[in-house]
Design brief:
The structure is a single chain. With 280 residues, the protein is of the alpha+beta class. The chain has 2 domains: 3-114, 3-Layer(aba) Sandwich (Rossmann fold), CATH 3.40.50.10330; 127-265, Sandwich (Tumour Suppressor Smad4). The protein has helices at residues 17-29, 48-53, 65-74, 92-97, 103-113, 142-149, 156-168, 207-219, and strands at residues 3-8, 33-39, 58-63, 81-86, 116-117, 120-124, 127-129, 133-135, 175-176, 187-193, 196-202, 229-233, 235-238, 244-248, 251-255, 260-265, 270-271. The strands form 4 sheets. The chain has a 6-stranded antiparallel β-sheet, with no helix packed on it. A 5-stranded antiparallel β-sheet has the order 7-6-16-13-9, with no helix packed on it. Strands 2-1-3-4 form a 4-stranded parallel β-sheet, sandwiched between helices. The mean pLDDT is 82.
């Protein structure tokens, strides 16, 4: 790790312009060259060819899971390394790769380590989820989360009411190919694993789970919401005749009816400083 490209989102989670500048000072302290920077989404994400032309060997991502997802998809075929720093609300990828939560300490450890691992992810058409995927009516809670993110608290009650109506007054989603799951659920959580996909489905009759799901969405940690039915599969298919709202690492997308969702695995491009890496 010698020549870096720095991708940040100053509006994401715990990052700020001042914190990004502090990270650049650490680069200089460690003798690392900064070939370029991207302040997403104001700046377009770099292309792999541009990184190679600049002699970049490592992309440093200091942002939330949604921004990290966008960058990883844009650079899926690039052969350099990625250093994920905690710069969002949950920072699940960073936690999977590093023992530390202080981005400065992670950078120091990575400069001395530079060990790369592969990570599992979820594939659905052109979309990817490295942290998790949410399917079903309850995914509409993301609108309440966006209201909180933007500080528009006067609109929060309306957003919560809309999400509640969508969750309980729409038919649940049906998925095929997952043994042990029933016909319809208000939310299906899909998590990537090294040997397939892990599923956790919430039934609308368990209103306590839906209430917790909504609360965790508003407060930022949607992964903490409990579920009622669990399963595992290598792939599944949407059993709906209409488009389905889906959240990839917390960001909304619309999936076509019948979309197949399967497990994938990245190249060995992620720098891991944990004593026990999440992939090999």
């Amino acid at each position: 790790m010698q020549t870096l490209w720095f991708i940040t989102n100053p509006n994401s989670g715990t990052t700020s312009a001042a914190k990004c500048e502090a990270m650049e000072a650490v680069f200089e302290e460690r003798g690392l060259a900064l070939a370029g920077r991207t302040r997403f989404p104001a700046d377009p994400l770099p292309e792999g060819a541009a990184l190679d032309a600049a002699g970049v060997d490592t992309v440093v991502l200091f942002a939330g899971d949604g921004t990290i997802n966008a960058a990883l998809r844009a650079l899926a075929d690039w052969r350099g390394a990625f250093l994920i720093l905690p710069g969002g609300t949950m920072n699940l990828l960073a936690k999977a790769l590093h023992d530390e939560t202080d981005p400065h300490k992670i950078l120091h450890a990575a400069h001395a380590c530079d060990r790369r691992v592969a990570l599992p992810y979820i594939v659905a058409g052109e979309h990817r989820a490295f942290v998790g995927l949410i399917l079903g009516p309850a995914a509409s809670w993301f609108r309440a989360r966006e209201v909180v993110r933007k500080g528009r608290f006067g609109r929060l009650l309306g957003a919560v009411r809309g999400a509640w109506r969508a969750t309980f007054h729409r038919r649940g989603i049906r998925i095929d190919g997952a043994q042990g799951l029933g016909d319809r659920y208000q939310a299906v959580f899909v998590t990537p694993a090294l040997d397939g996909l892990e599923l956790a489905a919430v039934d609308a009759r368990d209103w306590g789970s839906i209430a917790q799901l909504g609360w965790e969405w508003v407060t930022g940690d949607w992964v903490a919401a409990r579920a009622v039915t669990e399963g595992r599969t290598e792939q599944l298919r949407l059993g709906e005749r209409r488009p389905v709202l889906a959240l990839f690492d917390g960001e909304p997308e619309t999936l076509a009816p019948g979309t197949t969702i399967r497990a994938g695995r990245s190249l060995e491009t992620f720098i891991a400083t944990r004593q026990e890496a999440p992939a090999a």
